[in-house]
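Input record (one chain):
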Amino acid sequence: MPDFSFEKEAIAKGYKFICGVDEAGRGPLAGPVCAAAVILPEDCEIEGLNDSKKISEKKRELLFDVIIEKALAYSIAFGSVKEIEEYNILEATYIAMNRAINGLNIKPDFALIDGNRVPKGIGIPCETIVKGDAKSCSIAAASILAKVTRDRLMLEYDKKYPEYLFSAHKGYGTKAHYEAIKQHGVCEIHRLSFLKNVLG
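The corresponding structure, as predicted from the sequence alone:
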């Protein structure tokens, strides 16, 4: 379970506002990538907080509201399908992470980032943590905000493009999604670079 050990290490080094950063939606065939940055109060207790992939959709929805209520600051941002296609998914993820950090209404002086690469353009000291969403409370909180926000957006797209069943798979490459693409072609939110093998 995540805890505040990484945050406390940063505080011990003299940093004051530590934000956790994570993304959701790097793998899907459709839709943007979403990133969130969260600054939690020190030793903030949020029951059930964990990596967003390890908890149910219902629990994520409940935790989303608790995180927003308890956070000192939070920000959620996207890397668009256009940016994914123009650059690549990694660059678009970095764009989203930078937007999320820059969108915080308290300026962080240190960032804890899920993964093993420091995103380009981050202008503050940071530490990358592999599987950080299962180790750091701040990153776990960011993972939930990003995942819930992106899932909600895909539900909106499902209303616009019901033939793709986005509400069921959120844009990921399921059998039903591939079959829908073969039957209906692609729509404006599909990542064509992810579909080269399918489209020929």
